[in-house]
């Protein structure tokens, strides 16, 4: 399949798995987190949890664990499917799991951050969707770098999203713009920055007018 997608122009086969991984990580961990969290708070579900045997902390931990495990499984399946279609090599499966772990922490934190700032569940979902699209294009996995101007590539390479995209291409054995250790360092550092922001802005109850 990969050979059939090659031609005189850009090789789109190297973008298939990174594109799929970016969409499922941002969607599973960020978009599907921000909306429900905003709705739970808007409808008083988080407040009611304080009066039940299930503590708020247990609810959050369970929610986080389920999302992370789901992201890991889906990432492995996406890479395995790519290997089955001869788009990527088999080692892409374990690489996808390694990248998905810090990525899921980052995007879950962004999901909680967005869900805390926006009171409406639908608005939070829309905001997370647009944020996911930003990651999709700014990471370089949605558009072949060969067709971009040098000035645009310089701007994209300056953004932290470029290092995330670099790791997605590393999974598939594609060309990287930075070293793998640097990519992981930037991704983990980004998660370390966003996690405290998500914790600080998180609210159990809707803001009072």
Could you explain how this protein is built, in words?
- The protein has 209 residues and is mainly α.
- Helix content is 72%, strand content 0%.
- It has eight helices and no strands.
- Helix 1 (13-42) packs parallel to helix 4, helix 1 (13-42) packs antiparallel against helix 5 and helix 3 (56-84) runs antiparallel to helix 4.
- It is globular and about 55 Å long.
- The protein starts with 12 loop residues before the first helix and ends in an 8-residue tail after the last helix.
Brief write-up:
The chain has eight helices and no strands.
Considering the chains and any ligands shown, give keywords for the structure:
72% helix, 0% strand, globular, 209 residues, mainly alpha
């Amino acid at each position: 399949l990969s050979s059939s997608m090659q031609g005189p122009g850009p090789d789109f086969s190297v973008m298939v798995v990174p594109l799929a991984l970016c969409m499922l990580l941002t969607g599973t961990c960020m978009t599907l987190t921000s909306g429900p969290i905003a709705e739970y708070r808007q409808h008083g579900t988080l407040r009611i949890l304080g009066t039940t045997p299930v503590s708020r902390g247990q609810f959050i931990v369970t929610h986080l664990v389920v999302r992370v495990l789901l992201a890991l499984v889906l990432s492995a399946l996406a890479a395995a499917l790519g290997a089955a279609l001869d788009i990527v090599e088999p080692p892409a499966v374990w690489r996808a799991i390694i990248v998905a772990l810090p990525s899921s922490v980052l995007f879950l934190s962004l999901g909680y951050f967005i869900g805390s700032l926006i009171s409406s569940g639908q608005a939070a979902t829309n905001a997370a969707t647009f944020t996911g699209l930003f990651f999709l294009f700014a990471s370089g996995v949605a558009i072949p770098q060969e067709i971009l101007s040098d000035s645009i590539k310089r701007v994209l390479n300056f953004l932290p999203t470029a290092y995330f995209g670099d790791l997605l291409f590393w999974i598939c054995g594609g060309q990287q713009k930075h070293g793998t250790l640097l990519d992981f360092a930037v991704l983990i550092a980004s998660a370390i920055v966003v996690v405290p922001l998500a914790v600080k802005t998180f609210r159990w109850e809707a803001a009072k007018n």
